[in-house]
Amino acid sequence: xxxxxxxxxxxxxxxxxxxxxxxxxxxxxxxxxxxxxxxxxxxxxxxxxxxxxxxxxxxxxxxxxxxxxxxxxxxxxxxxxxxxxxxxxxxxxxxxxxxxxxxxxxxxxxxxxxxxxxxxxxxxxxxxxxxxxxxxxxxxxxxxxxxxxxxxxxxxxxxxxxxxxxxxxxxxxxxxxxxxxxxxxxxxxxxxxxxxxxxxxxxxxxxxxxxxxxxxxxxxxxxxxxxxxxxxxxxxxxxxxxxxxxxxxxxxxxxxxxxxxxxxxxxxxxxxxxxxxxxxxxxxxxxxxxxxxxxxxxxxxxxxxxxxxxxxxxxxxxxxxxxxxxxxxxxxxxxxxxxxxxxxxxxxxxxxxxxxxxxxxxxxxxxxxxxxxxxxxxxxxxxxxxxxxxxxxxxxxxxxxxxxxxxxxxxxxxxxxxxxxxxxxxxxxxxxxxxxxxxxxxxxxxxxxxxxxxxxxxxxxxxxxxxxxxxxxxxxxxxxxxxxxxxxxxxxxxxxxxxxxxxxxxxxxxxxxxxxxxxxxxxxxxxxxxxxxxxxxxxxxxxxxxxxxxxxxxxxxxxxxxxxxxxxxxxxxxxxxxxxxxxxxxxxxxxxxxxxxxxxxxxxxxxxxxxxxxxxxxxxxxxxxxxxxxxxxxxxxxxxxxxxxxxxxxxxxxxxxxxxxxxxxxxxxxxxxxxxxxxxxxxxxxxxxxxxxxxxxxxxxxxxxxxxx
Length: 709
Prior knowledge:
The protein contains 16 helices and 24 strands. The protein is an alpha+beta fold and 709 residues long.
């Protein structure tokens, strides 16, 4: 594309696509700088306790082993802002898998063999890794993630519930879930003349640089962090992780560049996970289906290292009109790895529970599930009372129902079958907040007619380079192929991470502003440009982060069709359709990919992804892709994503909302609701594995006392 008329919204191809498919794109582990060594961590083998001894001699005796770092000899660093980075500084073991050593070798094989040869002894202590709704140590935190109040409400939810004509009181459970990006967490670091350089697989170089500067007590301008290509993150790379600290530490000790590439099976213990959430929903409604009371209470776990409270009750504050509303969070500190961000934290598990409960209420009332949601559409945001900047959930529900053929659905559970297969369909709504942060960017017109735009965005596979170029071309009135974009270098300037569906909104705002200023300068310039070109800068501090009088959210509607095999218990999703209202779509191709990716991830949450904390050993039983099953192509028969046109003047100069997370939010609930429609059985715990489904089918066919067991 060379024109400018349709540059925003056009399906421009991703600029780095050829590099990736030809293998020339380099990731953090692939910077083979001269003299590079490799390092392999040593994880703790107890769930709680302290290291009483480390025998590194067997490792150091192996050929190619250069060093063994432990709390006894590692460099003393300043305290990190994030305590999960305080590695190799104390004999204390807060959870199984906590790193207690690092072996540096000439090769990856030497480092791995050395790590296996290190002998660590422990003094184990009693531990607790199991969260329950009534856990004696559960407490109400000061706030949930994102600074949300832990408890909110208006009206008397308990009294309104008690007096409601129809009452629903149900509990749901979402297990721990893991991010598992294609590229594990990796960093390559080296020191030169007192300067630290790190290639890190991270969702944001600004935060990594700040943490490294703090810990190694350096001015930030003496630290450079680069993340040219990142193979996914889903939130787990949204904050600095131990790999980059260990790589920098080992590089300082050995005087050589060092790569730390975390083995996949170590990731669940050290890079965060979606914490398990236990939900209790109480919905009261009148005969017309309008909610009279809504209560959503969540209990979750956090570690003893750092408090992280999954804000799973927050979406209930946004979705439906209820004169009485209460939401609350409780959390228990356990001897578990520290949970962290995972795609749509809070909204994803919270909306699974809420949208499942809404489906149950629709069944109780005998009202169509789409119609029930429409009847409870609020005029303003229920919790804050703010007007919505735009809210097109009803349009998404109606358009999705039309495209899906919802009008042909027989509402009776178990009414469709094909041989041993039961067929059902379900719906769920979705929401995700509009987030935006300050950012800096620069734009320069060059004498050859090209433009150079620099913004410290991180492209984690979403097409950030491409969309930033489209925003620049649109603001400059220039052909897209004349705009070059440089990203993912902490030296460019401050930029927020790629997370919270806020990346494009934040980076794009700064890019747009820089390019508008440049266009104004060029309009007043006559004659040829100087050799260095003409430039303009932008910093959106004070504007992008200004308080808005509007409640700003993206919305969506998910529809799913499933088959349930009554012989094997296997659930297959034959159709998954989503319609979204996400402001102005800036690139139709990358947007559709993001929607489909999120919907597929939600499908995995519904059917295959499951993790358990072993109560006997204190670690995650499912720690690799052999036991933690993410969807494969064969699991995704037909996934379609659409969006409604939405004009919103209260967002950013592009009029865009984030799309990276809205796609996952309602997906699992739609699948679960479809399984209920197929079978007549309500499942309230994920995932819907063949064993879980088949057991319920057998019990449904042969109630307790008739099975002969």
